[in-house]
Each structure stands twice: as C-alpha cells, then as structure tokens.
Amino acid sequence: MFKQLEDINSRPEPFEFYTAADLWNDDHTSQQMLAYHLNTDIDVSSRRGALIDQSVEWIESHFSVGTDTRIADFGCGPGLYASRLAKLGASVTGIDFSAQSIEHARDEAEQSGLSIEYINQNYLDFETEDRFDIILMIMCDFCALSPSQRMALLTKFHSILSPDGSVLLDVYSLNAFKQREEAASYGENLLNSFWSAEKYYGFLSSFKYEEVKVVLDKYTIVEAERTRTVYNWLQYFSSESLQSEFEKAGFAQHAFYSDVAGTPFDESGSEFAIVGKK
After folding, report:
1. Which of 98, 120, 74, 75 has its CA nearest to residue 21?
2. How far apart are CA 91 and CA 115, in angstroms?
3. pLDDT at site 276
4. In the CATH hierarchy, which fold is given to the domain comprising 27-172+237-277?
5. In sequence order, what are the beta bridge partners of 137?
6. What's the confidence (pLDDT) of residue 3?
7. How many angstroms separate the CA atoms of 266 and 172, rounded?
8. Which CB contacts under 8 angstroms, 24+ apart, belong to 194-201?
9. Which residues of 92-108 are buried (b: 16+ CB within 10 A; e: fewer)?
C-alpha cells in the first residue's frame, strides 16, 4: 500500500505522459464531458451560451465571415461554434477526439439542415489537402499540449491556412498560474462520479512546475477491476511566450485580446486570446 501511495503522489517530468485518449475515448467520461458542453449556464468544457454567441458575433465581424469563408474548428466538441458559423454561410470543418460529441454534432447539423463536415479524430493526427481562412481552437485546448505537440500543431495550422488566413485560440495566463497551488485530495467517487458509473476511489495530486509555468492535475482512479491514471497538463503563457511560439511556426502578425469575443487585451486577466496571421 505504501508503494502505491508513493506512485500516486509521484511527480513526473513535465508532459512526460499523454493520456488524452483515456478521457475522450472512455464512454462514461466522454458522456460526462458532453453533458458539460451542453450546459449553457457553466464554463466547463465549453463557454456559457451567451459568451459563445458574443464570440461568434465578433468572429463574424472581425474576420468578415460569409458564404466563401472556410473555417476549421479544432476541438469542436458538439459543434457549438461550428453550427453557429455554418448558419452564417461559412463552410465549416470540425475535428474532435470524442465520438460522442461528434455524433451529437452530426445529429444537430442534420436536424438543422446544416452542411458541416465533422471528423472524429485526435486533431494532432488530422491531415487534409483543404485550405482554410480561419482556424479556431477555443477553450484553452492549446494549453493541454506539450511544447513539441504545440509546435507541430502550429506548423500544421500554418500549412493548411490560405495565404491570408488566421488562427484564433485562447490560453491561460501567468496570472492564472500564480493562483494555482500544489495540493493532494482523495474521495469516494471523486468529482461526483465523473470518472466511472461504478464505485471508485479517486486521488488528485496537483503539481506546479515553476520554471516552465506548467501545472499537472494527476488523477488516479481505483476501481474494483482496474486502476488508471489520467494526466491533465496545463501550460500557462505570457503574451511574449505565446507570440514566440507563433513566430517560430512562421506566423508573421499577431494581435492579443482578453478573450475570443474580442474584448481588449488586459494583462491582469486569467486568460487571453491571440489572432495569428500567416
């Protein structure tokens, strides 16, 4: 038991493990995530419905979205942005790891008479010959990726954008990093049975990596028949560090905002957004 507790509370190297599939391909947890996506009153998995509407209005205005606009939504979830943008006449492609979210998005598109291409795939593996005018990656998904994954993704974005194309994504700020603390907690059916429909014991160990501005929430889930560990990494950024990553990937221009709704940039915020232009 002592060794098991030592393993549970051990600190890995930053981004040493990548367990996204354990979250998005598990039937129970992906269904939980979908429910959070569809709850328009909370900022879990997706933004509140009112902020999504505000964001889409700003995206439409800022990027002059119309019938000739080609948009790729990386981490599209159940299509909350994709469907709204398609209603504006844009040609939208949505990519997401969760089969349940994609199934929901396809059903909603069919019922609404919208022609949206939804692809059930880890967006790190997505390849296409298409070119896009706008690439979206919303809800700080970028922060969950390792430095090498981020660089590969930004390079991919640069290659599949049209000559004047832009990327819009949001990240957690260093102000948010300062608010995080290392901690350990334990509970029966931790997070209100989020991890399994069956009884389990959950351990959460949160580690803070000051030098690289990374936080890990490490979940160890102990069930009757299995024990699994899920690593939820979050990279925190300054505007300078995010700009540097975009420039290394070949983006020539950038602009910062407080969110993906175009609110003027505020350095004291817990999140911020960037528009990178090819």
Report:
1. 98
2. 8
3. 98
4. Rossmann fold (3.40.50)
5. 169
6. 85
7. 13
8. 194/29, 194/32, 195/28, 195/29, 195/219, 195/221, 195/230, 196/28, 196/221, 196/223, 197/28, 198/223, 198/224, 199/223, 199/224
9. bbbbbbbebbbebbbeb
pLDDT at 80: 95
Confidence (pLDDT) at 30: 86
Query: What pLDDT is recorded for position 162?
Result: 97
User: Do residues 222 and 205 touch, judged by C-beta distance below 8 A?
Assistant: no
Residues 214, 144: Cα–Cα separation, whole Å: 10
Report the chain (278 residues): mean pLDDT per 10 consecutive residues. 89 96 85 81 74 96 95 96 97 96 96 96 96 97 98 98 97 98 97 96 98 98 96 98 97 96 95 96
Residues in contact with 202: Cβ distance below 8 Å, sequence separation at least 6, in sequence order: 186, 187, 188, 189, 190, 191, 195, 219, 220, 221, 222
Q: Which pLDDT score is estimated for 45?
A: 63
Task: Give the per-residue pLDDT at 44.
Answer: 64
AA letter at 234: L
One-letter identity of residue 9: N
Long-range contacts of residues 114-119, Cβ cutoff 8 Å, at least 24 apart: 114/83, 114/86, 114/87, 115/86, 115/91, 116/79, 116/82, 116/83, 116/86, 116/92, 117/92, 117/93, 118/76, 118/79, 118/82, 118/93, 118/94, 119/93, 119/94, 119/95
Residue carrying structure tokens 């010959």: 129
Longest dimension (CA), the chain: 62
